[in-house]
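Please check this chain.
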Amino acid sequence: MDSNITVSSSNITSIHTVAQVISWVTFAIGSPVLCLVAYTLYHLVKTDHVTPVYIINLLITNIFSFIGRPNTAGEKNLISAEIRSLVFYYSVITNIVFMVCIAQERYLLVTRPVCLGSRHAVRSSALVSLLLWVGPLAVLSLAIYGYFLWLSVCLLPFPYFLFLCLDAVRALSCSTTLPSQEKRRILGTLTFILGNYIVIFLPFILNMLLKSLSVSVEGFPLETVASMLLLLSPLLDPLLFFCVHKSRRDILQAFPCCKGLVHHQEEPGSVPTISETVASV
């Protein structure tokens, strides 16, 4: 019996150590990457892009995730632990909400392109984003009052993600107006969001659902795995930037130190693009 207790406590200690290492690594790498990507996306918003508005808000949710992470070294203050737990749940809720918005915007770009691409659309998306920061507070109240079953149900938009992805594939196969590169970006964004939700958030939601139903999974540390995967979210969310940006020129123009390189590429001695050749003819 004593040896089992020793092994069990050793496993718990090793798990806490691994979680603490992952937490610090993701914070050290994720925080500067989040700031850099958010700055670049802000520049794209000023050029009438709609999707970066939602992605910027998605990156902000990772800040709440950093604040709400549990203290792996042990808790001394119960009140601070409860506050961090609420902040953590709020980050999960808002992250999923903005992923839904990004996926829906990509889907509408295929099915309803006239609704997007204007300054009015950018302002509308900014207003919607403000409302979406307030709306999840109602869902958060389910966690405050202990209704984790209903909370886990509210965080299961998997069928909607799957519908958007499959119907977008159908619409893209029938579309003749969008270029092939734009089609790949749209499909890549929807696929990435679906995969990100399945890998990062679905295990956590399933664990919360099973615990609310008093169902235990024997032989598999679902809670530990789900907690580890959530720590990786700040590293994966910035990858959405590479799914939506259109060209390297857009990235370079966001940084003052790189504008000279952009102008150098646009000099008369540079190789003209196909569009420039057609326009000159």
